[in-house]
Amino acid sequence: MQSKLIKDPVFGFIKIDNQFVLRALDTAEFQRLRNIQQTSYTSLYPAAVHNRFLHSIGVYHLGNKVISALLSNMDEDVRIILSKHIDTFLLACLLHDVGHAPFSHSGENFFLQAKDESRNPAIYSLLNEVVNDSDFSEDMKAIHKENGPGPAKAHEIMSAVIGLQLLDKKALMTLN
């Protein structure tokens, strides 16, 4: 399988399989992460590169290391089961921050503003629409109960929405 090498300032050259390049890396949704700064430490370390793009590449690299370590320490039966989920795991590593907005965490509260008086932010409605599953919708309702568990961070919800839409778009392209 062909791959692409990307130079990372921390890990050196990272090899990314072509299927992940085509499905995630070469999309506008992922490329925009180049312009979203991850931390405010660049004022302390002016030569540092801390954008969400390289961070996501690094997470993919570390995810590959985790998979390799797990596979080398498991029974054959477990290895077979795990191998069916490797691509999904690596895509999740790459796309985990794809929902970050400009200014990263600073603007997240904007996404969580309630759409109406039901206290259900529009971002949750969008996620329910994309997932389109009644069990999932019921779970989401439980999140908004007064004493229920707190909501996920806004960028995590947007990452799920964008990732699902992106994968759906790519799946449709391969069908046509």
Describe this structure in a few short sentences:
By secondary structure, the chain is mainly alpha-helical. The chain has 9 helices and 2 strands, in the order E-E-H-H-H-H-H-H-H-H-H. Strand 1 and strand 2 form a beta hairpin.
Oligomer status? single chain
Low-confidence stretches: 172-176
- Proportion of beta-strand residues: 5-15%
N/C terminus separation: 23 Å
Major sheet: 2 strands, antiparallel
- Reported by name, the CATH topology of the largest domain is Hypothetical protein af1432
Relevant CATH superfamily of the largest domain? Hypothetical protein af1432
The ordered string of helix (H) and strand (E) elements is EEHHHHHHHHH
CATH class of the largest domain: Mainly Alpha
Question: Quick one: overall form?
Answer: globular
- Structural class category: mainly alpha
Tally of individual helices: 9
Radius of gyration: 18 Å
Assign a percent range to the helix content.
55-70%
CATH architecture of the largest domain: Orthogonal Bundle
How many runs of DSSP E, i.e. beta strands? Answer: 2
Mean pLDDT over the residues: 78
Total domains, how many?
2
Order of strands across the widest beta sheet? 1-2
Describe the structure.
This protein folds into 2 domains: 98 residues, Hypothetical protein af1432, CATH 1.10.3210.10; 72 residues, no CATH class. A two-stranded antiparallel sheet has the order 1-2. The chain is mainly alpha-helical. The longest helix has 22 residues. The C terminus is likely disordered. 55% of the residues lie in helices and 7% in strands. The protein has 9 helices and 2 strands, in the order E-E-H-H-H-H-H-H-H-H-H.
